[in-house]
Amino acid sequence: MKFFVDTANLEQIKEAHALGILDGVTTNPSLMAKEGISGTEAVMKHYKAICDLVPGDVSAEVISTDFEGMVKEGEALAKIADNIVIKIPMIKDGIKALSYFRDKGIPTNCTLVFSAGQAILAAKAGATYVSPFIGRIDDISWDGMQLIHDIAEIYAVQGFDTEILAASIRNGKHIVEAAKHGADVVTCPLSAMLSLLKHPLTDSGLAKFLADHKAAADKA
Ligand code: G3P
């Protein structure tokens, strides 16, 4: 399973990359806005900075909601670097845009996916990645992880190549469950990734090892 970090914050991307386990980055307009990035030039410059930091796939989302606009934006974004993936929303013109980019050999990530039916459409349109939003489904008291399970089953039965990118991941449990249910990729905040490190028995075990080592050294 691949690990992507879900942020536009360069320091967090650097920190995740330094761990040596980072396979890519996803962003969205809200995450870019959070970093104060606005205007075409600044957005392009920021994506270039991310692509220079990370060799893996970097999802850059279009703002347009019509086919022509998505194609124009996507083509400009794809020129930034070889590792740019065009993120397209799950809407009717988005399906047309996914098909267009598939035919051009430009990788895509179909975002804002909340049902198995939407995931089938994304795969049929040749999306490289499909992004079901786990946390937001849980937020409305539904079962986000069941959706990962269903998509994984459908894609396996049908032989679809589209990779399942579990998004809107909020914590370590989500990461483990997504892995169990067949996600090909999880994208999450750095905090969720780092939370996987934590276990009280690791902390107490390490404290004991170090204390025993010190006691032996003091005796010698
Ligand atoms: O990038 C899309 C997704 O991961 C958003 O997550 O936490 O805003 O629901 P969240």
Could you characterize the architecture of this molecule?
The protein has about 220 residues and is an alpha/beta fold. It has a single domain (about 1-220), classed as TIM Barrel, CATH 3.20.20.70. The chain has helices at about 10-20, 30-35, 40-55, 65-80, 90-105, 115-125, 135-140, 145-160, 170-180, 190-195, 200-220; strands spanning about 1-5, 25, 55-60, 85-90, 110-115, 130, 165, 185-190. Strand 1, helix 1 (about 10-20) and strand 2 form a beta-alpha-beta unit. Helix 6 (about 115-125) runs parallel beside helix 8 (about 145-160). The radius of gyration is 20 Å and the shape is globular. The relative contact order is 0.12.
User: What strand order characterises the main sheet?
Assistant: 1-2-3-4-5-6-7-8
Per CATH, the architecture is Alpha-Beta Barrel
Largest sheet: 8 strands, parallel, barrel
What fraction of residues sit in β-strands?
15-25%
What is the CATH superfamily? Aldolase class I
How many strand units? 8
Bound molecules: SN-glycerol-3-phosphate
Query: What class would the helix/strand composition place it in?
Result: alpha/beta
User: Uncertain runs with pLDDT below 50, 5 residues or more?
Assistant: none
Total helical elements: 11
Q: Taking all residues together, what is the mean pLDDT?
A: 97
